[in-house]
Amino acid sequence: MSDPKYFILDTNVLLHNADSLTSFTDNWVILPMTVIEELDKFKRQNDELGRNARSVIRQLDRLRMKGTLKDGVPMENGGTLKITVEYTNMPGTLLDMSVADNRILAVASNLKAEGKSVIFVSKDINARLKGDALGLDVMDFEKQKCNIDELYAGWRTISVPGEAIDRFHKEESFQEAKGFDFLANEFILLQDELNPKHSGLGRATDANSLTHLNSRNEHAWNVGPRSKEQRMALELLLDPDVNLVTLIGQAGTGKTLLALAAGLECVIHKGSHEKLLVSRPVIPMGKDIGYLPGSKDEKLLLWMQPIFDNLTYLMRHEKQDKNENSVQQKVNKLIKDQVVELEALTYIRGRSIPRQYVIIDEAQNLTPHEVKTIISRAGENTKMVFTGDPQQIDNPYLDSSSNGLSYAVERLKGHGIYGHVTLTRSERSPLSAIAADLL
């Protein structure tokens, strides 16, 4: 049997995922005292960080009942957890020990000096860089991560004989796709083997069959698709049998605009939902908005300006109304009448949300647990749409592979009530397109 490894966990790992304590089977998990002190600072917060801090502290207290954390307590996964007091210095370095990260790294460095197989685990890139510079093995906490380079796109192209495409256009479904193992709600572009311009677009109903897209889903709020990917997105956004949709794409691909158009269509024109609820994590989920000036609505106005911009465009586009005052009045009336509700993510936890069309914009800044928390709020006849760009993340402890949006795409693909589309072409303007492609 190989020698056990010693995993030294940074505080941000525990704050990111409270279950990380038990993620290192058959090995030692070491928590420096500084980590416990930092957890204590977070435990009173009424956000996701505070909840995770409290959860970890409760787990540690239960483990304490089994022995002494100073010497190490066995866990159910075969590992051992130990809390250790830091060394006050690190031989051979001039690091400032008043810095919390340096004290945590000192524990790792001194354990390595004792001959232990040590791995420093942190969500903080800078802390990992410092650890590497000290000669430590370092790693990100990779549970709930996916390979962004192989992320499910929601659609693919397959080459078939031209006659098969002709039959697909004439018949209700396509039954000649044995062996491709389509996923539920995956879009398939059938392309002629000899003439790529000869094609057909279908949607998978099972592993081997395709059906035509619904012609009633070609437009929403007088907005039509400008690309095949936008057409796929509208198909999912307007389908009442698809309860969860994720849209990924860079700026200008139309993901937020299409989601809002579909939401207005379903709430106002179709009446299939009672309200359009829109939110976006401009700052990490759960942060209190009280430090901003003004009332709650005034604070939200600052956060939600991109949503207002899209709503204004849609109101103007609906009847080609050029009167800016009239357009703004329409937007304000939708909000005043609570047809459209703009909400902070802080207030979503604990709610039950029935019969609503919910859009979470900029979802790439959410953790996997936060995405799970939001989806679990869905009540009867509620549809949820998550939009975002995994390449544009503001959360310092998330990346394109570990954020909640990417994780949801990879975990939920193939489920019958879920659909996804990755949009690749900017449609906002020629200037936006060249910026996205070249800058």
Outline of the structure:
The protein is 35% helix and 19% strand. It has 14 helices and 17 strands.
Q: What report would you give on this structure?
A:
This protein has 439 residues and is α/β, with parallel strands linked by helices. It folds into three domains: 5-139, 5'-nuclease (Rossmann fold); 145-212, Archaeosine Trna-guanine Transglycosylase, Chain: A, domain 4; 217-438, 3-Layer(aba) Sandwich (Rossmann fold), CATH 3.40.50.300. The chain has helices at 11-16, 33-42, 48-64, 100-113, 125-133, 162-170, 228-238, 255-269, 296-303, 305-319, 324-336, 368-375, 404-412, 430-438; strands at 5-9, 28-32, 73-74, 80-84, 117-121, 137-139, 155-160, 173-174, 187-192, 199-206, 209-212, 244-249, 275-279, 340-342, 356-360, 383-388, 418-423. Strands 3-4-2-1-5-6 form a six-stranded mixed beta sheet. α7 (228-238) packs parallel to α8 (255-269). The longest helix is centred in the N-terminal third of the chain and has 17 residues, at 48-64. The model has no long low-confidence stretch (mean pLDDT 89).
